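User: Sequence recovery, please. Input:
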């Protein structure tokens, strides 16, 4: 097996699609969160089993509560949005059951893709008149760039966390020294005060 084939397998394994399925109980809310970088395209495909008299809504928001996508009474469909900043994004599914119904659990399936995963290389290859191998190389090139960017972001965050830890350690050290000085000063003051008090009461000379 040559190096190119090994690299292809490795990069293909890194290209994953998030797929999840769960049972949504009546009149409950289920939310999924993911932290994403700025300017990342996200697409999702969902399907909800139908139940008589019941409905399910979904809403996509960021940490500030801005609504990026929403729909009521869903059964099957798709949504898409672009991240505006580095943030935690939340997808919530909400079950709505009238008070006069007992309600049953509904099965919800969700497939999400982001970044390079959202690109349709078949359409791109046809538009650019690329051969299959050229189309696959383009996909691997984009995937490699995405991985390099992810590693760069991880390195930057590691540096930020290290700087924060060092700053916190310095502050803790200074606070510990300050606390020791305060304790020593308080102990010295107590000894002097008690000595003066005992002398005033003529308990010591």
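Assistant: Recovered sequence (205 residues):
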């Amino acid at each position: 097996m040559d190096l190119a084939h090994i690299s292809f397998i490795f990069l293909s394994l890194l290209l994953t699609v998030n797929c999840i399925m769960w049972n949504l109980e009546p009149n409950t809310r289920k939310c999924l969160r993911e932290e994403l970088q700025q300017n990342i395209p996200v697409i999702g495909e969902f399907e909800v089993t139908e139940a008589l008299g019941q409905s399910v809504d979904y809403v996509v928001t960021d940490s500030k509560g801005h609504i990026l996508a929403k729909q009521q009474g869903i059964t099957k469909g798709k949504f898409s949005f672009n991240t505006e900043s580095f943030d935690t994004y939340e997808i919530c599914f909400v079950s709505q059951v009238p008070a006069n119904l007992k309600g049953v659990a509904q099965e919800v399936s969700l497939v999400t893709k982001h970044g390079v995963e959202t690109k349709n290389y078949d359409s791109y290859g046809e538009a650019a008149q690329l051969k299959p191998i050229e189309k696959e190389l383009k996909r691997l090139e984009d995937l490699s760039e995405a991985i390099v960017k992810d590693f760069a972001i991880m390195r930057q965050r590691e540096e930020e966390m290290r700087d924060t830890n060092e700053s916190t350690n310095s502050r803790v050290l200074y606070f510990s020294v300050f606390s020791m000085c305060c304790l020593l000063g308080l102990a010295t003051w107590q000894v002097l005060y008690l000595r003066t008090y005992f002398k005033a009461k003529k308990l010591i000379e």
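The longest strand covers residues 87-96.
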